[in-house]
Design brief:
498 residues; alpha/beta; globular
Length: 498
């Protein structure tokens, strides 16, 4: 009898190890934003995600060209609804039913694995001045009713991505955490509704913004490498802002009767340009720490079970609003063209990030300041301003990657950005005789600052169906091998028990 017990325990242990290994390889989530002047082909992006192990994606709105590319991809989808849609959705359940029919049911039936509908995006930011306070919960309720009517109530869960400013701690320690007083009752109503429908709460946490907002913020505390000045909360010493922030939410949930409420981290990352603290070195340091936690399944001191985490973001977006700061266009783990910004260790067999395949560019030509043009030309300043009004010049800002250029360099960079933005069309390099097109690649003389060539939107290589790809076949075989091992072990266990 003892030998049977011992054997049973060994098999159970093997089963657990296999199961944990299986779970670790499918835990990477990412945000895919599409605010780009020259977006990568969605098929290229989907393959980029699959090649790099991202099996969960969060979208900010229902765009057919994106959703169609995700069909039969094996990637789980959180589908977002922009804040501007909240008022119409709150006005009546019929509007929500139409939205679900068009954007959820239609794509689920075509093989898109939609798991969540994210109703709104950080609707309670203080900067919105209560614009969405009265519409978020009704919109959430109507979308839930529409999902149930569509027969998707169990398969697709609702959630609301919220900024971490919906909770706070007066003393700065997590155990004092509670929801903001001005929205406390509303937050409890939303969380209760989510809980009643077995749905998670989604929160966005940005350690970078803590550093951006406060120049005296201890920089080491923003990362995952420890600090000489931890935040001590009782018996717990918090060595990074993520753990402290997340546990403040957990404490707020517990105090209001939701100790087991599931939480998703909807956005977290670090930008690489547009601010003195937004650079490749800091981004690599932060995201390597983040990825390592995800791969290892590490939780926080208050909640040991790790949340699902969606890294922000996948690719840079040069058409995104810069109202929050110039860094907004530079959150991507990958550059605008899917090239790798920096090395990340993905945890198995020395796996690192893989660049996008099948990318096509415009011809190798650039628009720069003409050699005989004068820096004292009265039209120069206005020409630079004009170019940067219509193209992305955020890399020229203070503390940014191209901040050290001289006057000619600034002009050339701005002219080329405009030239590429308008697809190198005739006349797009005409700045009062100050500019010229060159086929000799210019250099800036500054590391990490270069003159780009934009993507050719008409020449993206069309990818094969993911189902037919070798990679997909390999994953399916891996699943089958895992299932077979589990089946054999289960059979042995059953025979022993009987």
């Amino acid at each position: 009898m003892e030998s049977h017990k011992s054997s049973f325990l060994w098999v159970f242990l093997i089963f657990s190890i296999l199961n944990s290994k299986y779970l670790l390889v499918q835990g990477l989530g990412v945000n895919w934003g599409t605010r780009a002047s020259h977006p990568l082909s969605p098929n290229v992006v989907v393959k980029l995600m699959k090649d790099n192990g991202f099996d969960k994606v969060k979208l900010f709105e229902a765009e057919p060209w994106v959703l169609n590319a995700l069909k039969n991809s094996g990637i789980q989808v959180m589908l977002g609804i922009p804040n501007d849609f909240l008022a119409p959705l709150a006005s009546g359940v019929r509007v929500a039913e139409d939205w679900v029919t068009k954007n959820v049911s239609a794509y689920v039936s075509r093989g898109v694995d939609i798991r969540y509908v994210a109703v709104g995006n950080e609707p309670f930011l203080k900067t919105y001045k209560n614009m969405f306070t009265n519409t978020t919960l009704p919109a959430l309720q109507n979308i839930q009713a529409a999902l149930i009517k569509a027969g998707l109530g169990r398969q697709v869960k609702i959630t609301v991505p919220l900024n971490a400013d919906v909770y706070e701690s007066g003393s700065g320690v997590p155990s004092e955490g509670n929801f903001r007083s001005d929205i406390h009752d509303l937050m409890i109503s939303i969380i209760q509704f989510l809980s009643d429908n077995a749905a998670p709460l989604t929160i966005n946490i940005y350690p970078f913004l803590s550093l951006y907002a406060d120049s005296h913020f201890p920089i080491d505390f923003a990362f995952f490498v420890g600090t000489n000045a931890p935040v001590v909360d009782g018996t717990i010493s918090y060595t990074n802002v993520f753990d402290a922030n997340y546990d403040t939410l957990v404490w707020a949930l517990e105090k209001n009767g939701f100790s087991s409420m599931p939480v998703i981290v909807g956005e977290i990352g670090w930008p690489t340009d547009g601010d003195q603290n937004a650079n490749l070195q800091y981004a690599q340091k932060f995201n390597q720490g983040l990825f390592s936690r995800i791969i290892q399944g590490q939780g926080t001191p208050k909640r040991k079970t790790p949340p699902d985490i969606y890294v922000f973001g996948l690719i840079d977006e040069d058409a995104k609003s810069i109202d929050p700061g110039n860094f907004e266009r530079h959150w991507g783990v990958f550059n605008y063209d899917g090239t790798v910004k920096y090395k990340l260790d993905l945890g198995s067999n020395n796996k690192t990030l893989i660049p996008a395949k099948g990318v096509r560019y415009l011809p190798k030509q650039w628009c720069v300041m003409a050699p005989d043009a004068s820096e004292s030309d009265p039209n120069l300043a206005d020409s630079i301003n004009y170019a940067c009004t219509y193209a992305d010049c955020t890399s020229l800002g203070y503390g940014s990657s191209c901040n050290g250029l001289d006057a000619r360099g600034n002009a050339s960079y701005a002219f080329n950005q405009y030239f590429q933005m308008f697809n190198q069309q005739k006349g797009s390099c005409d700045f009062h005789n100050l500019s010229v097109v060159t086929r000799i690649q210019p250099t800036t003389g500054i590391t990490n600052c270069k003159y780009e060539i934009m993507l050719d939107l008409g020449k993206h290589e069309k990818e094969r169906s993911p189902v037919a790809s070798v990679a997909a076949l390999g994953r399916r075989l891996e699943d089958l091998r895992y299932s077979a091992v589990v089946a054999v072990i289960s059979t042995v266990i059953v025979s022993w028990v009987s």
